[in-house]
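Protein in question kept in full:
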Amino acid sequence: MISKIDICSTATFGNASQSMDDFRKFNYFFGANGSGKTTISKILADESQFPNCRVTWKNNLELEARVYNRDFVDRNFTPQNKLKGVFTLGRQETDLNVFQQIFKKCNQISHYNMMMGISPEQVANMEAERENGQTENAHSR
């Protein structure tokens, strides 16, 4: 559990060290815009990025701090640029690896289609015809 946070010379916090203590198992920070909520959350997420700040842990037992701020949302809920319509929830490497493999295969298929002289429009038309054919076959049964 966190016992104290010292912040100095960071974002909205001045050169004089400011301390917070009396923390509980779960802590919520709220306040007006520009009051330092995001700065505190970033310090908790990665103290090493803030050399003028210190997080002190009760009994020197550092625990995983779970910080749900804008950085968390950007990392975990932002659409992937290369795969339209696909986004990940979480940061599991396996998901990213699968998406990278799918993207690579899509690029290979596009490359083979170009080599065979088939345009993306023709591929889309063939897909539509195939889907229509399956639909018609399903209705005729």
